[in-house]
Amino acid sequence: MPSIVSESFVLRGSIEKTHNIRIDGTIVGDIKDANVVVIGTNGVVQGNVKAIDLVVFGYIEGNISAVNSISIKNTGKIKGELDAKILTLEHGATYEGIISMEPSTS
What we know:
By secondary structure, the protein is mainly beta. Helix content is 0%, strand content 59%. It contains no helices and 15 strands. The chain has strands at residues 3-5, 10-12, 15-16, 20-23, 26-28, 31-39, 44-46, 49-56, 59-61, 64-72, 77-79, 82-84, 86-89, 94-96, 99-101. The strands form two sheets. Strands 1, 3, 4, 6, 8, 10, 12, 13 and 15 form a nine-stranded parallel beta sheet that branches. The protein has a six-stranded parallel beta sheet with strand order 2-5-7-9-11-14, with no helix packed on it. The relative contact order is 0.15.
């Protein structure tokens, strides 16, 4: 079961070593060492994100590092640097920044 930051909640500070988290509110700070992070449509993160997988329906302003994948959905907006093995952008997604991807070994 994921941890949930509800829509009316604002957290100023970092979140560390969380398994799965869904953010529908606002985080002003970093998310570090998470498994799966989902930013809901109304979710906002102003800080860096380090996770295994990231799904963005909302907004992130900060640098993102994902061990596996980053998926920016049609309502998603990201401003910052991305580093991941797999990047998926749906039609309508907005991205501003630099992308680094590990070359395929197959």
